[in-house]
């Protein structure tokens, strides 16, 4: 069974690396495109596990915000891992990628935040013709 990777591909990671990534190929060392694919699959599986613990089983139909958080978590983690392998953990930007991954992971592991966001419905009501005072609740316009 293939792992759903939330639309991330190797080029997304290569474009975020703070180095010239044109030299990274299928057989390059210490980081190769194959290794990056493995890392993407690993982080995707972890994200799916986090979402399932939060009660979200259909990961292919997430709202835009949750989908973006998952992609940030995966991409930031993989970029930081690639920088680790290339002995670039002292390079500027490394801490930023680790911090972004940690923040996204915190949101994904907080079931209350996810359920509140996923439970929000989108309305097809034309609000331009209806006074806002008629709406109550936690709607966002």
Automatic annotation (TrEMBL):
Region Disordered: start-end pairs: 120-141
Q: Where is the composition biased (Basic and acidic residues)?
A: 129-141
Protein name, UniProt field? Uncharacterized protein
Classification from the root reads: Bacteria, Pseudomonadati, Pseudomonadota, Gammaproteobacteria, Chromatiales
Q: From what superkingdom does this record's organism come?
A: Bacteria
């Amino acid at each position: 069974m293939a792992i759903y990777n939330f639309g991330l591909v190797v080029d997304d990671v290569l474009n975020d690396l703070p180095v010239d990534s044109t030299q990274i190929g299928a057989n390059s060392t210490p980081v190769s495109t194959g290794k990056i694919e493995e890392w993407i699959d690993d982080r995707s599986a972890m994200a799916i596990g986090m979402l399932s613990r939060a009660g979200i089983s259909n990961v292919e139909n997430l709202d835009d915000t949750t989908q973006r958080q998952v992609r940030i978590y995966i991409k930031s983690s993989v970029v930081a891992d690639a920088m680790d392998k290339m002995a670039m953990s002292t390079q500027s930007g490394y801490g930023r990628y680790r911090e972004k991954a940690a923040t996204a992971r915190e949101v994904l592991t907080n079931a209350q935040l996810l359920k509140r966001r996923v439970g929000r419905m989108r309305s097809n009501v034309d609000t331009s013709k209806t006074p806002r005072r008629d709406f109550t609740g936690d709607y966002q316009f």
